[in-house]
Design brief:
The chain has helices spanning 17-23, 61-74, 107-114, 119-138, 172-203; strands at 5-7, 13-15, 24-32, 37-43, 48-56, 85-90, 94-99, 141-142, 160-161. By secondary structure, the chain is of the alpha+beta class. This is CaM kinase-like vesicle-associated protein.
């Protein structure tokens, strides 16, 4: 039996929580979702920050199924435009999934910051996304959550198995709430930019 692991009566071997905390230092919690908690975690040896999802087994069978399904699918994937699986742990109480951290921000925010977006820019992002989608389809995996604000680096982070097992599910109300908040944030950015343009026009002789 590996050092630091626990064997239960059913014969399964589990990681201990110290296996996780000895390797990773947990940082900022990004948000809590219906099925999991999303946070940052730094690899202590490599001094590199990753993205971590923590699923609590006590939250029910649906949560346990979602975690196991996500781990199963992510282990199949190896593509430069898909956030890579780095590490997984299963303790008696939790599942931990560590992935690459996408730091590019949303495409929409990037466009607003740049002030313009050329056809070449758009085609480059769409090409990366479609290459990732084609790769998923070659493995009979359907994403089913593509939307207008993927990371600006074009990588995908959520996948879903074709057989109906959802990797990352969200209640309709939670999704609509996130979309409303996202649209409000975008409208604020648009208004700020319109204000800047108006002030620029007023300063012209």
């Amino acid at each position: 039996m590996p050092f630091g692991c626990l064997a239960l009566r059913d014969g399964r071997t589990y990681d201990s929580i110290s296996d996780v905390t000895d390797k990773y230092e947990f940082g900022q919690v990004l948000r809590a979702k219906e099925f999991c908690e999303l946070c940052l975690a730094k690899d202590r040896q490599r001094d590199k920050v990753f993205f971590c999802k923590k699923f609590l087994k006590k939250d029910g069978r649906k949560v346990r199924k979602a975690a196991k399904n996500e781990i199963m699918i992510l282990k199949l994937l190896n593509h430069p435009n898909i956030l890579q699986l780095i590490d997984t742990f299963e303790t008696r109480k939790e599942y931990f999934i560590f992935q690459d951290l996408a730091t590019g921000g949303d495409v929409f925010d990037w466009i607003l910051d740049q002030g313009n977006y050329t056809e070449r820019d758009a085609s480059n992002v769409i090409r990366q996304v479609l290459e990732a989608v084609a790769y998923l389809h070659s493995l009979n995996i359907v994403h089913r959550n593509l939307k207008g604000d993927p990371p600006a680096d074009g990588r995908l982070g959520r996948e879903k198995g074709e057989g109906g097992g959802q990797v990352e599910e969200r209640r309709g109300e939670e999704r609509r709430g996130e979309e409303r908040r996202g649209e409000e944030r975008r409208e604020e950015r648009r208004e700020e930019r319109r204000g800047e343009e108006r002030r620029g026009e007023e300063r012209k002789p």
